[in-house]
Amino acid sequence: LSQARAGIISTVEVLKVMEAFVNEPNYTVWSDLSCNLGILSTLLSHTDFYEEIQVFVKDVFSPIGERLGWDPKPGEGHLDALLRGLVLGKLGKAGHKATLEEARRRFKDHVEGKHILSADLRSPVYVTILKHGDSTTLDTMLKLHKQADMQEEKNRIERVLGAISQPELIQKVLTFALSEEVRPQDTVSVIGGVAGGSKQGRKAAWKFVRDNWEELYNRYQGGFLISRLIKV
């Protein structure tokens, strides 16, 4: 990928190498692949190839997703749980049909209190249902945020809200970022999630930061959070 970024080889060569990793069992390798594909997806979101890169993601990640399944297996290590969350989140965001259907089913059970999602599956499920969700989905997530008694769960929800893709709902999330519901130190995570969630989100987040610059600057002054905000 570094060679492709430097213009020495074609990005097509990178994708060909990625295809060879379908039987890879190691979390660290998949994490790297996921990160690099995320960079390519971001770049391609401004082109006609965006849908095609999502198909590529589904092709590369679905074999490992099928092998891991949704539930932990006996004797599994911590890295397998991390890998499951990573892979299901990637497939869900890309619109993998079976993953989306199962995420919706499990989310419904979670909200209704029938079967609470394990901690390592919450982020991938939340991201998936938000990415392909509507105003009802967002309202449910905001309700879960309000009801959460642990800050860890509130932060988990804040980080993924930006996955929602409709322009009016993106604005709702950005307004929420500056509300009393979100701790000042966590506002950056919400805005960052919107900026990284979609092409529409990036534009909206950039405009929002400019429009609210005075309030944000006064809130963070010269601290590390203002530089993190600019970076995201």
Automatic annotation (TrEMBL):
* Superkingdom of the organism of origin: Eukaryota
Q: Which InterPro entries match?
A: ERAP1-like_C_dom, Peptidase_M1_aminopeptidases
Molecular function, one GO term: metalloaminopeptidase activity
For this record, the Gene Ontology CC terms, alphabetical, are: cytoplasm; extracellular space; membrane
Q: Which Pfam families match?
A: ERAP1_C
Which family is this sequence assigned to?
Belongs to the peptidase M1 family.
Q: What is this protein called?
A: PSA aminopeptidase
This protein's species is: Dromas ardeola
Q: Which gene encodes it?
A: Npepps
